[in-house]
Amino acid sequence: LDPSFVSPMLSGAISEACRNGLSLPIFSLQITDATQLRNPDIRELNLSVQELLASLDHQVSGILYLSQYARRIDGLLSGLSIPVVSAFATREDGEAFVHYDDHQGAYLAVNALLDSGCRKIAMISGPINSIGMYLRSSGYQQALVERGLLYDPRLVRIGDWDLESGYALTSGLLQEETGIDGIFAQNDMIGLGAFQAVRERGLSVPEDVSIIGFDDRLPDLPFVPRLSTIRPPFEQMGQTALSLLLDLIRVENVPAPPAQNRAPLLPCTLIRRESTRPVTV
Are 193 and 168 in contact (CB under 8 A)? Predict the structure, then answer.
């Protein structure tokens, strides 16, 4: 399991189980390959779960699926006769899921930069085939437009979710564009890469360029300034997902409402640290 995302969700689910006087058996599907992690074969996952259920010596009332990577998972476990709730994933096949609001989180991040006085804000993003990238990009655009600033595609760079990509894309951006005073990095590793590129160019963070990331899953690192970021509610996602699963189990024989009415997107939180300038009045 990826501890940076799964652990807090699992902690929230266990807390909710304890609150209801239940124990929560935990099983791993052992997905470790990066390609499978991002784009799993739904048929293989379904087969693995069916084999797991057949091997158990007790009856299962429901399944809580915690994804290691945010993705769309239509068809996953949809043919089972027991309720299934997924967390850290989205789906449009009518099955229940719990996720956070990528658009709202990005909107929050860019408004934090605008509130601190930034006016030329770049975005360094993850890969184009990511749902999170698309939604965070739309939040970035909405925040700019609502504050009277034009969306400039020259200020957007698309890469991967790692530090190396953040560094390379930010270095190229700063060579090509002048006057950039804010950077929204679509995750914290990209943000660290952007931080290195800005410093390497002889600029100060946050005095010359403010930087804000997304995820708040970095370990404590001995660097200053610390990275401002957007914190998704991972623990609350685990709690909400298990609570929803228990509700579905209790009313298993009653027609359930549409998934969108029972799986709201949970809001993210702004964590303001030293990599962004104070709010200007």
Answer: yes
Nearest Cα to Cα of residue 229 among 170, 187, 182: 187
Quick: pLDDT tens for 59-116.
899 999 999 888 888 998 887 889 999 999 998 888 899 999 999 999 999 999 999 9
Please spell the DSSP secondary structure of 197-215, one letter per residue.
HHHHTT--TTTT-EEE-S-
- Amino acid letter for position 131: I
pTM: 0.89
CA-to-CA separations, 129 to 37, 44, 134, in angstroms, rounded: 14, 21, 8
Residue whose token pair is 């005095």:
207
How far apart CA 125 and CA 158 sit, in angstroms, is 5
Residue 258 falls in which region: left (phi positive, over 0), alpha (psi -120 to 50) or beta: beta
210 has which bridge partners?
Answer: 182
Whether the Cβ atoms of residue 112 and residue 270 lie closer than 8 Å to each other: yes
Q: What is the DSSP letter of 26?
A: -
With CA atoms as reference, report the closest residue to 182 among 202, 166, 196, 198: 198
pLDDT single digits (tens) 206-261: 999 999 999 998 866 666 789 999 999 999 999 999 999 999 998 755 544 444 44
